[in-house]
Amino acid sequence: MSVITAPQTTILPAHDEPRLRRGRGRWLLRALSTAVTVAILLVGVLAIAIDLGTRTASDGQGAILGHPVMTVLSGSMNPTFRTGDIIVDKPVTAAQASHLHVGQVISFRAQPGSTQIITHRIVAVRDERGAVSYITKGDVNNSADSTPRPASDVVGTFSFAVPRAGYALVAIRTPRVIGMFVLSAGLWIVSVMLFRRAARPENS
Question: 128 vs 95, 125, 141, 194, CA distance in Å?
Fold first, then answer.
């Protein structure tokens, strides 16, 4: 004769339930603290990398990993990029600078040897006995720039923009914001340590 045994249900003692809830709470706290700490570190590292890169270019032109980087100060190229954006260009060699075409957005020196950079779109190309220059224009401007831009003054071609990042970069460089960032990171680390100590079981 076969005997059928009914499935048994394990019931935890009532005093174990709070312990399980505390365990889940500690796990969530650890996950949250890890995520926020990583986010703070990533933002800090990115800000420092951008700041150092835009400060240390030998010719006065900001660059990160060889790519020209600039903060947009006017709205002449809306909506391709806007005031306060950071734009990243693709660097060009002297040979490449002489073979650009109409429609490309280029960054060039306002004057030969100047550290002031303008980023406009090519609307015409001139080639006078091998000396190439470009007629440029801001997308929202009514007329082209008055001065042709020699190929030798081109520093890069537009690659992409980071919206409003220029404002953040300016703010990051101020002592007040740097101090607040360091203070907030320190307070977060201390609070995490205190929470973890408070969440430890009494017998540990």
Answer: 16, 10, 26, 73
Helices (H), the chain: 17-55, 94-97, 165-172, 175-199
What is the rounded distance in angstroms from the CA atom of residue 179 to the CA atom of residue 25? 32
Residue 168 to residues 18, 72, 182, Cα–Cα distance (Å): 45, 13, 16
Considering the four listed CATH numbers 2.60.120.200, 2.10.109.10, 2.40.160.60, 2.40.10.500, the one that applies to the domain covering 62-166 is 2.10.109.10
Q: pLDDT digit string (tens) for 76-114? A: 999 999 998 989 999 999 999 999 999 999 999 988 878
In the chain, where the domains are located: 21-53+174-199, 62-166
pLDDT in tens, 24-61: 666 776 677 677 666 666 666 666 655 555 554 444 45
Radius of gyration of the chain from its Cα atoms, rounded to whole angstroms? 29
Q: Residue 157 CB: number of other CB atoms within 10 A?
A: 19
How does pLDDT run across 140-182, given as a tens digit for each residue?
A: 999 999 999 999 999 999 999 989 887 777 766 667 766 776 7
Rounded Cα gap, residues 99 and 118, in angstroms? 19
CA distance 99 to 59: 24
Put the strands of the sheet holding 154-162 in their side by side order.
Answer: 63-64, 67-71, 86-91, 154-162, 105-109, 117-128, 131-137, 149-150
